[in-house]
Every structure is written in structure tokens, then in C-alpha cells.
Description:
A: alpha/beta, 15 helices, B: 2 strands
Amino acid sequence: MRRTIVDDRLKNFLDAKLNADVSRRSFLQGAAGLSTLTVLGGTGTALAAGGKLGGDLNFLGWDGENGANVAKPFLEANNIKMNASFQSAADEALTRFNTGGRGAMDILTPNKDFQTAILKSGVELFQPLDLSRIPTASGLFPTFKTASWLVKDGKTYGIPIIWGDEPCVFNPKKWDAMPAKYTDFADPKFKGELVLLDDPFGNIWLWAKSLDMPEPSRLTAAQLQKVLEAMLKAKPNVVTIGGSHGDMADVLVRGDASIGIGGWAYQVVIAKGKGVDLKVGSPSVDGTFFWSDSYAIAVDAPNLDNAYAYIDFMTKPESNAALATELSSGCTVEAAYDLMKEDIRSMFPYEHVRKPSGSILGTQIVVPPQKPDGDVVGAASWVEAWQTFKAS
Amino acid sequence: MSSSAAPAAREQSRPHASMLPAAAFYIVFFALPTLCLFVLSFWTADGFQLIPGFTLGNYEKIFTSPLYRALMIRTIGVAFVTTAIVVPIAFAVSFLMRFVFERRGQFILQMVLLSLFSGYLVRIYAWRTILGKQGLLNSTLQWLGVIREPLDFLIYSNFAVVVTLSGLLLPLAVLPLYSAMLNIGRDDIEAARDLGAGRLHVLRTVLLPMAMPGVRTAFAFSFLLSAGDFVTPSLVGGAQSLLIGNIISDQFRGIGSNWPLGAAMAFVVIAVMLASYLIVMRLIRWVTTW
Lengths: 392, 290
């Protein structure tokens, strides 16, 4: 009975959050008021290696990834007061860091794309982690133990907390399967059927891959133009561009479109709750892309001991399973998999993260260079191309 | 001088003192941030870094880009159409409340205000429910046999943006207009009618000029808010109804953002909106004095 109540509350919580703001990551909300889903292990009362715990812990990241509910016993047992604030865009942590936040920020939760861009650019934001102070990180899936997007010059800058992919979500009453390639969505038979996510990098990358560009994340101006032209061929079939995954789900549930591109498996769960049957399935040739968010520590973090102890606690299997369940995402700790309910864990292709060396998450670079690199255009050009697509 | 008269005298000697808190609030939370944004519009962005300096490059890009020009024209067009719908309807509603249903005027006003109690997003989603492919309007028309297939243009179109914005802004336009109408006496209208003025003449030479403060505010609310909105077009505008506000918001979030360019766009929009406002006000003044 209790399980049912908790499940209902989780579902309501997720539904509410899905309708907030832009992008999947923006949906992630604090789980205040939500019962702890899993009986957590030890609360981690301890002395951090090299320091005593207690006092403040400043968090700036995606809403919900602070794990207010999951971390509560740990924080209480160690007299740590978490000061959580939430970002609405990936680069907000950097903005705050550069505008007086340096020295007042501890835990950050960058996504894979942003962390890749920051580490490549050499801009100061994340400090290298002392993995000896996060022993639970040894339990990560092989992919996450050697995640290339978190490592620079042999130093690790983040501990993955959740992950997932962005497949197509479609109405099986209208379609048996997705076409083989994203460029196939230009077919007039899809007129009035498509809803896209307002994500410049994800969409341009998918079409670049579909056009067999040698490096879909590194396009020249001519290649970007070619991608834009290919996307514009599909534009007449696009009903709307969803501001968030929740908005996309709403469009699909209302029947205003029947295919969501760059969707989220959880949309199927939402639709089911509203009596609508949706299915996940990406183009067989092109596939889709993957994301992952990590815990990182800011340069000059004032509460380093608390930060390390917190990350170590949140990387325990019980904590990771609870957080991934709350956020309806993939878990990153191998032992957490068995602690999760089948309906949540079956939403993500775990075979990818059981492979070492970052697997497809590591080789897939979705974001372009932040600045132009020779003939290769920078992120601003991608944003402008996406705006042209939206405005056309 | 009596002791009770002393504070009043002090107040008279400093007539602007009572405005200081409001002025301080506006300076700190409006003027200074706006000034910062204006300065930022002359900077440049280099990857993740803002480079202070002075360049007109951002403004040049806005004026030379066909994309931004087209979006600006579309935005002003949508704002004008919305205002042209909202202000006359609000004027008529206010007139009815003031002169026709005078006794129930306050009750109607409460009803108008009641609509503001629901959230902005909730009201947009309500319009989506009404205008959607399988929404209330299409379903009703199909049930009545008026149409066989759902009318596609009702949702995810400029039509949907204008209708939704009109619905959102109408209560805001009624408030100042009704307030202005309360200052117009029946005697003023009857005097004009006694002197032989027709209904249109009364409207043009008596009602409009006397309700002008309300018209100005209603116009400002409707025009400026619809021209600056980016949530409504993103939720009901569909794939072809992007407005300049959406592009500005893109410049301030995520990888590839360009704050200086976004700031410059914001100031161009402000300038265009102010110019449009002044032109329309001048036009109304000309019509009412002609």
C-alpha cells in the first residue's frame, strides 16, 4: 500500500516537473516532500579524509540533482546545511563563478556537453577530484569509471550521477516504426506529425549524422548550411517545437503530433498515465545520442570536506538508485541497477554503460566547439542556424 | 505654528520626499540593471567569456541580418494586431460596465479580475485545450457537423498566438480603461448629444479624449507585453510563429549564448516599441482633435 502511495506521489511529482521550463534537465526538480524511495544504507557519519564534516555545503546545479530527500539523512547526521540553488541553463554555473561566485560554490552538476566544452576550452571552473576521497566511485559502471568527458591530462573532474538518451517517441496507432534516417522525416507523409525539442545542438547533430558528415559535431560553414537545408526540408512537417520534454509529451498526448524527435522514454510513462499509448524507437540507421550529468567541485570550493563526503555518499548504490528513480533516469552505479524497479531501469539501454572506455557516451560528442576552430564553425553559428530553422 | 502643523509644513517643504522609496526601488531594480544591459550591448562574447569594449557590431548584425529583421517585423505585426483586437474590445467592455450595466459594473470588474487569479501558464495551456486539433473548438465544430476534419490553423499558428495573447491581455486592458471611464460623466455625453453630435462624433470627440489616459495605458500593456512575450509563441505558436522574444531568450541561455547580442536585440526592440507607441498615440490624438 505504502509503495502505491509513494509511486503515485513520484508520478505526480514527475508530471508536475515535466511541465516546468526548458529541456529535460530543467525538469529535474527538488524532491522536497517526496518520501525517500529506497531505504538508504548508512548515513555516512564520518570524518572526511583530511577534515571534519559540518557547516555549509553550497550546491548549484540542475534542480533535483541535489537529492534533497536522498541526502537528508547524511546531511542531518553530519550537521551539514545544504544551500541549494538551481540553474536554468548549462552555463549558469560559469556565469556565477565569474561574477562573484568564486569561493562560494562547492558542488556543481554539469552535463556531459557543458563539461566537455569547459575542459576543452581551458576555462577555470571545475577542480580535479581526489578520487581517494570518493571510494564509492569504484562502483560506477565501466563506462563511467573511464568517462573521457570527465578526464583531462589524466585528472578526473566529475562523478557521473545519472544518464539517459533522447530517442524518438511515437504513437503506435499511427506508425509501426520510425524511418531509418532522420532525413527521412522530410517525407510529406509526416506532415503535421512531428514535434521537436528546442535544442539546437541535439537536432543539428542528429541531422548532420543522418547526412553522414564525417564529424557531426565539427561542421564547416558549408556543411552547417547543408544540414540546415536538410532540416528545412522536414520543417513543413513540424507542428511545433517543444520548450521542454514535458511540453513535447503534452503535444503528443493531446494528439497534436504523433512523433517526438529528441524525446525521452519517460514520456511513454506520462502518456500511459493519461490513457495514451506511446512507444520509443529511434531511426534504425542513425540511432540517437546520450547524455549524462555529473557531480563536480568548483575551483576554490570553501567546503571541500563536505563536498567530497557528499559525493561519496551520493555515489553509494542505495543513494544512486534512489536518485535515479526520483529523476526517472539511468543509474551510474553498477550495484544500484538491482535496487531499481524494472519499469524505470528498462527505459534505458544499459548495455552501453557496461562497456569500458566511455563507450558510446564517450565517443559521441554532440556539442560543437565553443569558438570557431579553423574552418570549423563555433557554437554561436549552430545557434544561429537553429534560429533560422525555427523562424523559417 | 502649532505642533500638529509642523509635520505637514515639513512635508510641503520636501514635496518629493514621499517618492524616494519608490524612486530608489526603480533605480536599483530597473534603471541600473537596464543601464548594465545597455553597456553590455556594446561588448562582445568570445566563447564562454564576455569581452568588455565598445563595438556597434551587435547592432550592425541585427540591422543587416534578414533573420532578425523578419522576426522584428513579424513581432511588431503580431503586437499591433493583438492590440487592435484587445483595446477596442476592452474599450467596449469598459463602456458597457460604466454606462450600460452601471449597477453591475463592480461585479463585472470582479469577474474580469478573477481571470487574473489563474496562472499565466495555466491560461496558455487552457487556450491550447480550446484550440487544439482535438480541442474544445474543433470537437464542437465536428460534432455540429460544421467541419469534417480539424481546422489546423487554430493551433500552432500566428492566429493562435494572437487569440491567446488577446485572451491574456484583455483583463489588463479593461482595468485602466474602466478606471478612466469612471471619470466621464453621463452629463458630458448627453451635452454632446444635445448639441447634435452623432454617436461616432461623441466617441471621437468626447469619450476617446476623456478616456485617453486609460487608452494610453491599455495600449502600452497590450502592445508592449505582446511584443515582448516569448512564452506564448513557444507554447501555441508552433513551428512557424517564432517572435523576436524567443531569439533574445536564446541568446541568454546555454552553450553558444551571446549576451551582448541579446542585450543589443533587447534595446532595438525597446526602441522600436517606443517609437511605435509614440506614433500610435500621436495618431489617436490627431483623430480625436480632427
